[in-house]
Amino acid sequence: MKDKLKVLYSLPASQRLDKYLVELNIQELYSRSFIERLIEEDRILVNLTPVKKSYLLKEGDEVIINLPEPEPMDVLPQNIPLDVIYEDDDLAIINKQAGMIVHPGFGNPEGTLVNAILYRFGENLSSGRELNRPGIVHRLDRGTSGLIIIAKNDPVQARLCEMFAKRLVKKTYLAITTGVPEPLNGDIETFLARSNKNPRTVCVAKEGRYALTTYETLKTWHYFALAKVNLATGRMHQIRVHFAYIHYPVLGDLLYNSRNYVHSLVPQNMKRKVTELLVNHLHRQALHSWQLEFEHPITGNLLNVTAPLPEDIKYTLRWLNNYFSIDTDTRDVNVLLNEDINNEQNGTGIG
User: Fold this and answer.
1) What's the N-to-C CA distance of the chain in angstroms?
2) How many CB atoms lie within 10 A of CB 182?
3) What is the extent of the structural domain holding 248?
4) What is the pTM of this model?
5) How far apart are CA 300 and CA 312, in angstroms?
6) How many angstroms separate the Cα of 38 from the Cα of each of 42, 47, 88?
7) Three-class SS of residue 72?
8) Are both 40 and 122 inside the same structural domain?
9) Statement to judge: residues 137 and 260 lie in one domain
10) Cis peptide, bond prior to residue 155, ω within 30 of zero
C-alpha cells in the first residue's frame, strides 16, 4: 500500500469530500467507513488543511490522503489442517471443525482459525476489522461446526461486511433440539443483551440488539427434533439463546442446556443412554453452519455452498433413530437433507 495519495479536484460543481472519494473507487480507499475514519484522524487533507467529511470541494482543491501503516500482528501462523470448501482470488469458505476458536484471545493465543489461515493463505488475507483478526468477516462459536467466510483483501472484506449488515447473506444452520418445537415451524423474535448474572452468556431482554431466527422442523423423534434454522440477524449465541428461550434448547449445549434438563424429558430407562451420548460422543452443542448462499462480492455470481455433517452430529442422528424413533415418521435424515440440498441448489451452483 502506498503511503500517500494525491487527487486534484477538477469538477466545476462542488461536491462533498466523502461522497467524492467513495465515487473515485480507489482500491486503497475500500469502504465509506474507512474513508470516514481517515478524515476523522486528519489523514485526509484539503490544501494541506484538515477538514470535515461534509467539506464541499471546489475546482482546483488538492486532496492529500495519508494512508496508515498496517498494524503489526502478533499471531503465529500454524500448520493446522483446514477443510476448504470453496476458494478463489477474493475469498475462501472454510468448514470449521467444532472445538476450534475463530480468533486468538485471552488464554487462547494459538490453535485458532486465524493461526491456521495465516499459514494457509499467508499475506493473501484482508487486514481484518480488528487487530490480529485477518480475513475474519463473521464468527462461529467454538462449539459450532460448519461454514465460515474468509476475506482475502480489504475491499472484499468491506463488501462482505456490508452484505451481512444488509442481510444479503443467507445463513442456514442445522440444530438438534431437546424437545420437539411447538409450533414445528416459526419465528423467534426478541432483543438480546449480555447477562448481568453471567457475562459469558446472552439473554432475552426488554432492550438490546434486535434478533430474528426462523426455523423449520425437518424430523422429529420422541423428545428430540432436527431443525433447519435461518438467521435474519447474526447476534452472539443467537440460535442457542432463542431455542432455550422457547424451552427447546440445543442438545449438548453446556451454557443454555444441561444434562439434567435432558434427563427430565426422557423415560427413566433412557437416562443412562443420554449420559453415554453426552459424555462419550457429543461434546458440544449440536449446531452446524450448514449452508451459505450469497452473491459473490466481486463477480456477482451466486454462491451456494454446503458443508457435510460432521461425525458427531451423524452419530447423534443414528442414536436418535435407534432409541427414540417415531414409527409414523419414516423419513430418512440423509435422504431428507440430500433432497433439501437439491431443491435449494436447483439452478444455482458455485462459480
Assistant:
1) 29
2) 11
3) 170-345
4) 0.78
5) 35
6) 6, 16, 30
7) coil
8) no
9) no
10) no
